[in-house]
Structure formats: structure tokens, C-alpha cells
Design brief:
Oligomer: homodimer
Helix content of chain A: 25-40%
Largest interface: A-B, 92 and 92 residues
CATH topology of one domain in chain A: Uridine Diphospho-n-acetylenolpyruvylglucosamine Reductase, domain 3
CATH architecture of one domain in chain A: 2-Layer Sandwich
Chain lengths: 461, 461
């Protein structure tokens, strides 16, 4: 049983962070009752109080109170998550990291940026670019905050070459469930000192502690890049090209597949035309390299490989402005579908199984009479299927959703590639991976015995 | 208290794996009483029995007996470790994976190799090369086995560009302390389904379960590579070049620093001459790229950068045979020092701190009158200092060793970059990181409540 948030505790919180950084007003707390997941009306939940600390020490003080009083505490970044991970389903305290928004250091010798949890990714991009450096991970919504992208192990389209957040976190500062502040990792490239607590916190969705600071790995920006749009007569052909591309020794920054049925709604929304010929499916490939010349050579090589593997044609997009236009177009798919969408799914399968997976969703789409437009990361097998709000969707939603996930699992996949388990996939995790859930529960109990840290996410205790 | 290994249990083990795969003979068990760590006489310990299962099911049966009888069980690969991780300090069962030596599948579409735990790295290299593929991680001793390099999160010289083992493990099969067989991960590139059990087992040194199979990520081999040997008047100058090199946007495969004092003993041992001019310090740089021409361009660019940053000269080694000769020379440093060496240390510091660290070890070398030749991975800050058996070393060893580790910690470093904690660094981990050790202990207790899995390694319970 959790403790109750009394007026005395609210006063105590105000003394820590200042009166204006504590709110119990329902109106002001609305923003903190949900994340970006569609259907949020169904899963939104109000906290009892929202607290906005300005420093790690303040976070620690707040957690000590939650620990003492056994009050649930749900950390929150920008709220851009897609699985309900920051919804305070047991009420209690929402601890928003929005005020901890300082970039502390850009270390040009060790290629790291140290930032507080509330810094937005777009701010990181901008700050490091000014120093001639580059932060590769690029999740869909760059207004996401550092703490959030660390604890959800965010991915994005550039994971093919550069990897996901996990590969770019060198160190964290974390406030443990008893309020103790711990630094894990640092500016180190290699660290083998026992169990990787760093990797345990990455992807823990705030259930083991509150990440207050991150030390992220930077790189030099690739001198040259180039985009290819490659149309195919079928998705199957497009997917078949992927291993052939990777076998050339070129690892693209991103290697996305697009089915034509997302192009129409996007054109409508953006009032812009898809700039190349229309076909059933496309690969959108971005490559980078050390020189302009080399990147053109790579472009020619990949064009050849794609044509050999059934592409209709290949269009080189070599001007920066045209590339950006296309990236914007790609970025808008989700927005274009969102209006009429019940949920964006996040299944990840072995890359060779993408076509089989998408064909399976087409059968399900016919069976249920619900459209399921799909796009995703062909290079890494992370496929975003959208369940649309077609007629009668409410009655079919649960059964259809489950069948799609079962399809992914049957192909050697996982229920989430980059959005996390949160609240909305907790049931599947338990159903498909009962023994792993047991191990995760034992870890959660060991590290947060009172179950106050973002309770009810990933696993139930 | 642990249970006793009775003759009845030995018979039971024989029924599982066959009589010839169980031994209790002291002579035959000698090989299983230590690893490669120098000073092994001090830390070697005999098991009560060595068992060699031929399949995961047999491993599971053996672990079930250990679980039932509360007998310690120490998994063992090739025994090439350098921190005593596979020494059965509480006796009991050594479970050697040497018979589980099959490469199960090379998947050319998903770029993975699936191998049993007892396959040697050199066998992986050879098998994937035949398929035109490439496995980048390259720890010093390629006779190491797949299971061992996974559970120690092995590193090696190629980590600068490609990362350590952790970055190349897609999935594992593991036998848990209760004997249950679990598959974690798979051929997936992205997986966010809860706490990363995969990353918890990677680097767990056999203390949480026995890894019986690994699914490892492969790549296409880089079409062209080139080596540079760059002499400097001081190590400080050499280290100063490193961020300048990385800022060009080129990430070398490997970027090693060498001090001249390891060259002499290596020349003596190999009867070969160091092929370029002698100087105080060197960088050995290997780069790869998509074409012969591009790799030459990169070589010229890096030469320029090194000269600008104080290099005396730069020698391009562009023939394959000469490159191999030099790599062999580099590989032999450890062997050359080994004869007269007490221990190879494995401290990892932020890359910018390497020079400061090495200068610190020079002061300690003078203070103690013990030579401390050093080489290491300049690109990733993992520095191998060797404590030599100079006169009177026995009395000075403990104090000197501790001061070196304190130096590393004071520079933001960690006690082990790639060799693991095992037995020989357990005391330092507890001393330098008491709170983390508490968290690790709570995880160990949660996952192995009877403490039968490789007890006494990483942390004590």
C-alpha cells in the first residue's frame, strides 16, 4: 500500500523546489497526465502533485520524501513517449525534469557532451554542431529530452550505421529509489567493472531510478552525405535488396522502406509532391563518407546493386535542400497518419523477415477490414505498423493488435524495438516472455523494494 | 554452506555426459585450476570435478544437480582470461564448454553467426571469412571461446571503430542458476522490451548463468585498409594527436600507442627488427574504407594531422604482408614481457587522460624501483601497464598495484576496461565503488539466491 500525499508533504516539496515549482491544480496537471501515445484518453491518469526540481540535489530530496512516505514517483521528460511510460497510473508525484535543462560541458578531446536530463535533443544537436561535432542518434521527435531518450533507449532512423542511444551513453548520474545520487560510467570508452549498471538503467523507463544527467558520445560529422530514393514494384523486392546493399561493405546511415500508401496522406497534409516516380514501395537510403567523391562512388555502387535486385530505377538526391525536403516528408508520415490512427506499433523483427511480416499484416488488414499502413527501418528490422481508426475499429482493436504482435513474435521478433514497454505493452511482455518478466521483477524488487519508482511500468510487482 | 560432491553425484554427472567427460583426477584437473593471469600459482584452485557437457540440455541437467545439492559451479571456456574469473575458488564443479564447439549457422541475410559457447574466436573468423563476411572484435588471444568473450565483454584493439563484444552480441542462450534454459535477444538489431537482460549477462563473468550459445553480429569486410606507424619525441605528443585524428571524421579501426621500452624485448624475442625509425613513442594506426583510393587519401590526411601535432614522421605500411608482420610484432608485446612480468593491468581512463596516466605510472615506477612498461589503446583510453618482476617486487607489489589503480580512478578511470573483475580486482571494486557493489550484490542475490554460479567473482555475497 502506498502512502498518501498530505498537505504537509506538499509544503515540504515547496520548501525544496520553491512554491512556483509545485502544482496540485488539476488544470495545470493535465499536461502531465499522459504522453504522446494515441488513445491517451483511455490511459491518462492525473498525479497528486507535479514537482519541478532545478538540480540533482533537489531530485534527491524529493525522492527521499517519496521513499520515507512510500509515495509513487514518476519521472517525466518531454512526454514524447509512445507507450505510456510517464503516465502516473498510481497517482503520487510526477517529477518533471524540464527545469534541469543545462548543457554542462562539451569535451572536444574526449568527444562527449554532458547534459542535464531536461535538455532537448534538438538543443544537443545545435550545441555540438557549433563545436564542429555530431551526435548521431535521431529519434523521430527531437523535442525529446536527454533523460527520456536514455531511459527508453530511443532509436530512430540512423541506427543502421550508428546504433541506438545505448551505444551513445558513456555515463549517467542517477538518483536511486532511496534518494542516493550515483554516478555510473563517465568519459570512458571501455568499462568492464562488474555488471553493467549503465546498461541496466538504459531502457529501464524510470523504474529503477531517475536519470538526472547524461554523458553522451559525440563524433566528428561525416564530411559528405547523399540520399538515394529507390522505387520497386513490390515491398518484397525492396527488402530483398537490403542484404545485397550491406554486403557491399557500405553501411548506410539510414535505410528505410516506405510503402506507397503513406505517400498520399502525406502529400495531402504537406501540400507537397513526392519528388520521384510513384511505385508500390521505396527504399530511402542515406550514406555518408569521408569525401564528396567517395560518396558519389558509393551512390553509384548502391544504384547498381539495387537495380540488380529488382529496383525500377534509382534517384540520387545530392543537394542538401532536396535531402532536407525529403527528410521532412519522411518525418511527416507519422503526423499525416496520426489524425485517423489508433496506435503506432513498434515491432522489431530480424531484417530478413520484414517482407514476410508486412505481408502478414496485409492479411490481417483484410481479415479485420482495418488499414495498416506501414513504414520502417529496413536496415534494422524495426517496423512501424499503424492501426487506423477505420469503421468499427473499436471492437476489433484488441484482437487485431494482439494478432499483429503474435505475428512479429512468430518471426523471431520482439514487441518493441525502440518505443519501450511502458504501460501499453506490459501485458504482451508478460504473456510472451513470462520467465524474463520473472527475472525483471526480481531485479526491480532488489533495486526498488518499495516499488515507488514509476510503478506499473514494464512489469508489475 | 555449500553441499558436498559425493561419489553418487559424480556417478549422476557421468550418466549425463558420459564417463569419459567427467574427471576427478588431480593431474587432469590441473589445466582447470587457473587461467592465464600471471601469478596464477597464488590464486589457482582445484575443482572437485570437471564435467564436459556436449549440449545445452546436458548443461541444464548438470546445473539442476548443482542447484539441488547447492554445489558451486564454475563455467569455463578456453581459460585465456586475465583476472582469475574461471578459477573455482570454492571447489565444486568446473563445467567446461570445450565440447560445445559447433558453429550452428551463418545467416548471410541477417549478418549473424550462431555458435556454441566452446567455439574459438579464430574459428569464427575463419568460418565467416569463407562466406565473405567479417567479425570485427579482436581480443588479444583469439583462442578464446565465444562464451568467454561474451561473459567478459572482451575488447581488443579494434574497439575504436567497431566497439567491444557488447556491441556484437545480438542474442544468447543461457542456462540459469536453476537449470532453466532461456533464449535472450535473437537476430534482432533493436530490442527495447524491458530491462536489457542481454546486457546484464554480457560481462557477468558466469556469475548469473552459463552462456551456452551466442548470436553474433557480422559485417561485410572493409574493402581496403592501411596502416600508419607514427613516431613521436614523447608519449604526450602522441596522445595529443588523438583528438585531432578523430576530428577529421576518420575513425580508425585501431589507434594504439606504443612506448619504445617494449620494442627492445620484443625484438629480442622475435629476432625481428622494428621496421621504422626508433623514437620515444609511436602511434600505430589502422584505417579502413570503401576503396583503395579513399584509404590512401585518408592515410595522407592523417599523416598531415599527425605532423601538425608534433609527429617526427609518418610511415605508411600499405602491403598486406608488412601490415601482418607489424600486427604480429604488436601481438607479441605481451608475450615478450610475460616472462618477467607479475601482472598485466587493464585500467581504462578518458582518452584525453592517457598521457597524464602514463606519466603518473612513470613516477610510481621511480618511487618503487619497478619498471612499468605500458602500451594500449589510445583511441579508447584502455591502457595496459605491466608490473615487472624487478628485484624485490614481491614486497612492493601490493602497494604499487594499489597506487596505480588509485591513479586511474583519480583521472576518471575504471579498474578494468576489458579483462573483467574476476577474482583479482574484486577487492578494488569493493573499495572504490562500495555502493555499486551493493547494487550488484542485490542483483546477484535476486538471480542466484543460492550463490552457486561462479561464486566469489565480481562481488562476494
Amino acid at each position: 500500500m502506498y502512502g498518501k500525499l498530505t498537505p504537509e508533504i506538499v509544503d515540504e516539496l515547496k520548501r525544496i523546489v520553491g512554491e512556483k515549482n509545485v502544482t496540485v491544480s488539476k488544470d495545470e496537471m493535465e499536461d502531465y497526465s499522459h504522453d504522446e501515445v494515441a488513445m491517451s484518453e483511455r490511459i491518462k491518469h492525473y498525479p497528486d502533485v507535479v514537482v519541478k526540481p532545478g538540480s540533482t540535489e533537489e531530485v534527491s530530496e524529493i525522492v527521499k520524501i517519496a521513499h520515507r512516505e512510500k509515495i509513487p514517483i514518476t519521472p517525466r521528460g518531454a512526454g514524447t513517449g509512445l507507450s505510456g511510460g510517464c503516465v502516473p497510473i498510481y497517482g503520487g508525484i510526477v517529477l518533471s525534469l524540464e527545469r534541469m535543462n543545462r548543457i554542462i560541458e562539451i569535451d572536444e578531446e574526449n568527444f562527449t557532451v554532458t547534459a542535464e536530463a531536461g535538455v532537448r535533443l534538438m538543443e544537443i544537436f545545435e550545441a555540438v554542431e557549433k563545436k564542429g561535432l555530431f551526435f548521431p542518434p535521431h529519434p523521430g521527435d527531437t523535442s525529446a529530452m536527454v533523460g527520456g531518450v536514455i531511459v527508453t533507449n530511443a532509436g530512430g532512423a540512423r541506427a543502421v550505421k550508428y546504433g541506438v542511444m545505448r551505444n551513445f551513453v558513456r555515463g549517467i548520474e542517477v538518483v536511486l529509489p532511496d534518494g542516493e545520487i550515483m554516478e555510473i560510467g563517465g568519459k570512458l570508452v571501455k568499462d568492464c567493472a562488474g555488471y553493467s549498471l549503465l546498461d541496466l538503467f538504459i531502457g529501464s523507463e524510470g523504474t529503477l531510478g531517475i536519470v538526472t544527467k547524461g554523458i553522451l558520445k559525440l563524433m566528428a560529422p561525416p564530411p559528405s552525405s547523399l540520399m538515394l530514393i529507390v522505387p520497386y514494384n513490390s515491398l518484397h523486392d525492396a527488402i530483398k535488396s537490403v542484404p545485397a546493399i550491406l554486403k557491399t561493405g557500405v553501411i548506410p546511415i539510414s535505410l528505410e522502406f516506405i510503402e506507397d500508401d503513406v505517400i498520399g496522406p502525406t502529400e495531402e497534409l504537406t501540400k507537397k509532391k513526392w519528388p520521384v516516380m510513384r511505385a508500390k514501395a521505396y527504399l530511402m537510403i542515406i550514406v555518408d563518407s569521408t569525401s564528396e567523391e567517395e560518396v558519389m562512388n558509393i551512390g553509384m555502387k548502391l544504384t547498381e546493386v539495387c537495380i540488380e535486385n529488382g529496383a525500377i530505377d534509382a534517384f540520387v538526391i545530392d543537394t542538401r535542400s532536396k535531402q532536407e525536403e525529403l527528410l521532412e516528408f519522411r518525418g511527416i508520415f507519422y503526423e499525416a497518419l496520426k489524425e485517423n490512427m489508433a496506435e503506432i506499433l513498434d515491432i522489431s523483427v530480424p531484417p530478413s523477415k520484414i517482407a514476410e511480416y508486412v505481408e502478414g499484416t496485409k492479411r490481417l488488414s483484410e481479415k479485420y477490414g482495418i488499414s495498416l499502413p506501414t513504414y520502417g527501418h529496413a536496415g534494422d528490422g524495426n517496423v512501424h505498423t499503424h492501426i487506423m481508426k477505420d469503421e468499427g475499429w473499436e471492437e476489433k482493436y484488441e484482437a487485431l493488435r494482439k494478432e499483429i504482435h503474435e505475428l512479429g513474435i512468430s518471426l523471431g521478433g520482439t514487441i518493441t524495438g525502440e518505443h519501450g514497454v511502458g504501460l501499453t505493452k506490459k501485458g504482451y511482455l508478460k504473456e510472451f516472455e513470462p520467465k524474463k518478466v520473472e527475472l525483471m521483477r526480481s531485479i526491480k524488487r532488489a533495486m526498488d523494494p518499495d516499488n515507488i519508482m514509476n510503478p506499473g511500468k514494464i512489469v508489475d510487482i
